[in-house]
């Protein structure tokens, strides 16, 4: 999943929780409902002194941790990540893709469709999405696993 050469050690330094919980949650809802561009995020980046890649990573980790803790549904998380992908790609156009944001987008995207060899009753979210999200979050947190008690 980590195909840009970004290491877990690099990821660890990219998200430091600069956003207050209410601001972060507002952005997640807006991303899911309308999508967010880099222009949409510019004021927030300036207000909190965060680079766009840092903000996108922070939002993406919040989505992943909320999903793994059972506080956020797959559908909402997938919608948020779909709403952030334009900004994620824009950052990646001039630099490496922001990680773990891009990998988490790819992970949530895996639940949207069944594979030809899957039986009809297979839960693609449990089979494909959850293990990838767990792996990415563990790598991001240096192998410590996700924190269900995180400030969601």
UniProtKB/TrEMBL annotation:
This is Uncharacterized protein. It comes from the Bacteria.
């Amino acid at each position: 999943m980590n195909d840009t050469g970004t290491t877990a050690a690099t990821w660890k330094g990219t998200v430091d929780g600069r956003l207050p919980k209410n601001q972060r949650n507002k952005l997640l809802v807006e991303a899911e409902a309308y999508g967010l561009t880099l222009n949409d995020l510019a004021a927030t980046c300036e207000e909190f002194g965060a680079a766009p890649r840092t903000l996108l990573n922070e939002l993406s980790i919040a989505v992943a941790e909320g999903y793994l803790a059972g506080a956020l549904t797959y559908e909402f998380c997938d919608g948020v990540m779909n709403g952030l992908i334009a900004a994620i790609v824009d950052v990646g156009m001039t630099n490496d893709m922001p990680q773990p944001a891009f990998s988490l987008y790819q992970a949530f995207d895996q639940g949207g469709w069944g594979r030809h060899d899957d039986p009809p009753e297979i839960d693609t979210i449990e089979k494909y999405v959850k293990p990838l999200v767990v792996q990415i979050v563990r790598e991001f947190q240096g192998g410590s696993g996700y924190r269900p008690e995180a400030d969601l």
